[in-house]
C-alpha cells in the first residue's frame, strides 16, 4: 500500500546529496563513530528519533539522520545506490515495492550471519510472512519494522439490525451477509473495497490466496488465469458490481473506499489493519462507535490474508560501516523498541510483542484478535514479487476492473496471464 508522507524535520539532518564518507583519524577497522541513517517520514521514524539519545549513549555512536518523504527517499536511493555510494549506512526501504530490485542489484548487504549472532535479539521471534519478504535467494537482506494485514471491517449496528449475530467467517457468508444488510438498508452498499486497477491488487491478493491461487507458481510462471485465480477475480469483482455502491468508480484507492465506509455508506469493507484509526476516530468517521473487525473470511483454501512488511531496515552493501549499522538495526528492531512503537499504533513484526498484552493495549480488542488469528496463515506478499512492480500491478489488476464492470473476468484473466508471462520473461 502506497502512503503519502509530508516532509518532516530531521535530527542532525544531512543534505540529501552532500554526505561524505567519514575518515580522518578514526579507527577504520572498528568503523566510523558517525552512523548515517536514512529513514522515511513515518510515525515509526518519529518514535525512533525520540529514543535516539538512548542508542547514542549506549554505543558511543553519533547518528546522522536523513529523513525524507517517500518520493524523495526513492529519488535519493536511485542516485546514491546506482552510483555505488557508501554515503548511506542504514536504509529504510519497502520490501514489496523495491526489495527485489535492490537485492538483485546487490544494494542490500547480506545480514544472514548477523541475524543469527544474538540469541537475545531473536530473529526467530519475527513473523514468517514479513521474514519471507525480506529474504532474497535464502539470504536475509532486511529486517521488517512495520507490518500490515488485511482484515474485515464491518458495521456492528447494521449486522444487529439484520439479525446477524456474528461477522462472516467465510467469503460465501460475507456475500450473503452483505446482500442481507444491503436489502434491509436502502442506500447502504453491502460491500466496498478498492477498485483501481493498481490500487486494488494488494487487497485482492487475500481473495486470490484464499481461493487457492497466487500470482506465480513455484517455478515463477504466471498463474493469474488458474481456476482459483479466475474464481477470485469473479468473486471480488462480483461483490463490488452486485453489492457495492451504485455507479461505483473503477479508480478508487483506500482513501476513497474508506470514505464510503466511514460516511456510513457500506456495511463491509476489506482493508489493511494499519488504517483502522481512520474508521474508529470520531473526528474522521461518522460510524466510529459501531465499527467492528474480524479476520479475513475463509475461501476454499482457508483464510489466507496477506501479512507483509510495508517497511524494513537494510544495510547498504557499499557501506564501510556495516557492523555499526547492524548495531542500530538491532537496537531499533529490539523487543523494547518494537513494543514502544506498537503501543504508539505502528504494527510490528515480532510475535512476542503481539502476544504481550501491552503490545495490543492500544488496539481495539476485536482487531487484535483478528490479527492474532490470521498471522499464522499470513502470506508474505500482497503483489507480484518482481523488479518493475508498478507495471506488473497494471497487468494483473486489469481483470479486477473488468469483473467490476461486468466484463468476462475469465477471458480477461487469460489475457492478463499471457501479458504477465511476457513481462516475467522480460525480467529474467
Amino acid at each position: 500500500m502506497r502512503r503519502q508522507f509530508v516532509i518532516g524535520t530531521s535530527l542532525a539532518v544531512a543534505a540529501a546529496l552532500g554526505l561524505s564518507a567519514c575518515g580522518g583519524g578514526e579507527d577504520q577497522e572498528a568503523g566510523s563513530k558517525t552512523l548515517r541513517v536514512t529513514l522515511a517520514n513515518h510515525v515509526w521514524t518519529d518514535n525512533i528519533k525520540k529514543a535516539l539519545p538512548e542508542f547514542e549513549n549506549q554505543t558511543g555512536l553519533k547518528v546522522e539522520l536523513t529523513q525524507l518523504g517517500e518520493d524523495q527517499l526513492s529519488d535519493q536511493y536511485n542516485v546514491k545506490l546506482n552510483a555505488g555510494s557508501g554515503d548511506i549506512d542504514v536504509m529504510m526501504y519497502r520490501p514489496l515495492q523495491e526489495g527485489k530490485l535492490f537485492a538483485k542489484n546487490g544494494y542490500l548487504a547480506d545480514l544472514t550471519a548477523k541475524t543469527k549472532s544474538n540469541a537475545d535479539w531473536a530473529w526467530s521471534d519475527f513473523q514468517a510472512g514479513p521474514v519471507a519478504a525480506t529474504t532474497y535467494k535464502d539470504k536475509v537482506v532486511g529486517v521488517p519494522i512495520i507490518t500490515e494485514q488485511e482484515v474485515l471491517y464491518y458495521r456492528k449496528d447494521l449486522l444487529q439490525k439484520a439479525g446477524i449475530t456474528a461477522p462472516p467467517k467465510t467469503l460465501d457468508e460475507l456475500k450473503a451477509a452483505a446482500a442481507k444488510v444491503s436489502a434491509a438498508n436502502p442506500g447502504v452498499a453491502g460491500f466496498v473495497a478498492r477498485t483501481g486497477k493498481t490500487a486494488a491488487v494488494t487487497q485482492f491478493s487475500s481473495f486470490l490466496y484464499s481461493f487457492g491461487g497466487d500470482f506465480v507458481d513455484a517455478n515463477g510462471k504466471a498463474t493469474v488465469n488458474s481456476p482459483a485465480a479466475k474464481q477470485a477475480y469473479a468473486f471480488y469483482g462480483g461483490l463490488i458490481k452486485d453489492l457495492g455502491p451504485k455507479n461505483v468508480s473503477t479508480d478508487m484507492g483506500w482513501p476513497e473506499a474508506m470514505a464510503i465506509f466511514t460516511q456510513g455508506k457500506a456495511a463491509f469493507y476489506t482493508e489493511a489493519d494499519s488504517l483502522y484509526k481512520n474508521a474508529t476516530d470520531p473526528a474522521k468517521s461518522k460510524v466510529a462507535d459501531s465499527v467492528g473487525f474480524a479476520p479475513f473470511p475463509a475461501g476454499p483454501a482457508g483464510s489466507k490474508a496477506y501479512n507483509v512488511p510495508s517497511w524494513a531496515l537494510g544495510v547498504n552493501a557499499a557501506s564501510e560501516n556495516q557492523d555499526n549499522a547492524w548495531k542500530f538495526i538491532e537496537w531499533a528492531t529490539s523487543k523494547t523498541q518494537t513494543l514502544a512503537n506498537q503501543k504508539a499504533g505502528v504494527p510490528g513484526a515480532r510475535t512476542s510483542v503481539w502476544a504481550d498484552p501491552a503490545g495490543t493495549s492500544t488496539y481495539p480488542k476485536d482487531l487484535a484478535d483478528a490479527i492474532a488469528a490470521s498471522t499464522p496463515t499470513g502470506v508474505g506478499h500482497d503483489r507480484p514479487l518482481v523488479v518493475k512492480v508498478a507495471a506488473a500491478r497494471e497487468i494483473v489488476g486489469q481483470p479486477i476492473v473488468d469483473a467490476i464492470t461486468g466484463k468476462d473476468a475469465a477471458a480477461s484473466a487469460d489475457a492478463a496471464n499471457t501479458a504477465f508471462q511476457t513481462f516475467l520473461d522480460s525480467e529474467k
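The first strand starts at residue 34 and ends at 40. The chain is about 40% helix and 15% strand.
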